[in-house]
Amino acid sequence: NPDKPVNAIPPRANAHCQLRYVVGVNPDDIVPALRRHLDAHGFQRVTVTPSRDGYFPATRLDPEHPWVHWAVASIERTTGSKPAILPNLGGSLPNDVFADVLGLPTVWIPHSYAACSQHAPNEHLLASVARDALRIMAGVFWDMGEAKKVPQ
Fold first, then answer.
1. Which of 31, 1, 7, 11 lies closest to 19 in space, CA to CA?
2. Considering the entire predicted model, what is its pTM?
3. Does residue 10 surpass a pLDDT of 70?
4. Which residue range is the domain that position 82 belongs to?
5. Which pLDDT does position 53 carry in this prediction?
6. Is residue 72 part of a domain?
7. Could you tell me where the DSSP H helices lie in 85-126?
8. What average pLDDT score do residues 50-60 get?
9. Are 66 and 106 contacting, i.e. CB atoms less than 8 angstroms apart?
10. How far apart are the first and last CA of the chain?
11. Distance separating alpha carbons of residues 146 and 92, to the nearest angstrom
12. For residues 68 and 62, is the Cβ–Cβ distance under 8 A?
């Protein structure tokens, strides 16, 4: 039945790809690298079109930076356990405005867990994670307000 095809292979397909990358990856080479990869594997007919002209460069704060130590100590005081440290912030947020343009150290404190399906249709946040996040951030801001000296 041409009006209701079943098991038919459509004549074309579209794929949307978003990438997060770390410091050291040249964002201007991402699309050309994808093109080279597709061509090398026999997919010369696939058209690659960037969805927009802009991107956010990835950033990284040295894990030994004084602000990292300060934030770790604050979180540890509040939670009783040491947080995991991930020094990279993938190129998907405008953190470079603070880190590169203004030259400010940035510490991001995410509030999530591995199965949250972040950015997926069923993305969610558990109430327990939200409570922990509120407690952590209240502790960070409290410690910042009480501090006689903060890192430079």
1. 31
2. 0.74
3. yes
4. 59-146
5. 66
6. yes
7. 96
8. 80
9. no
10. 71
11. 33
12. yes
How much of the chain, in percent, has pLDDT values that exceed 70?
Answer: 98
Structure tokens at 115: 């199965």
The residues, any chain, with a CB within 8 Å of residue 35's CB and separated by 6 or more, are 48
| Residue 64 maps to a domain | yes
Token couple for 74: 């604050």
The one-character DSSP state at 29 is G
Written in H, E and C, the secondary structure of 7-20 is CCCCCCCCCCCCCC
Residue 65 lies in a domain: yes
Region 60-76: mean pLDDT is: 95
- Inside any domain, residue 126: yes
| Count of domains forming the chain | 1
Residue 37 CA to residue 19 CA, distance in Å, equals 15
Q: 142 pLDDT exceeds 70?
A: yes
* Amino acid present at 142: W
> Cα–Cα distance between 1 and 5 in angstroms, integer?
6
CB 61 within 8 A of CB 105: yes
What single-letter DSSP state applies at residue 82? P
* CA pair distance 95, 42, nearest whole angstrom: 37
Instruction: Return the residue matching tokens 């558990």.
Output: 126
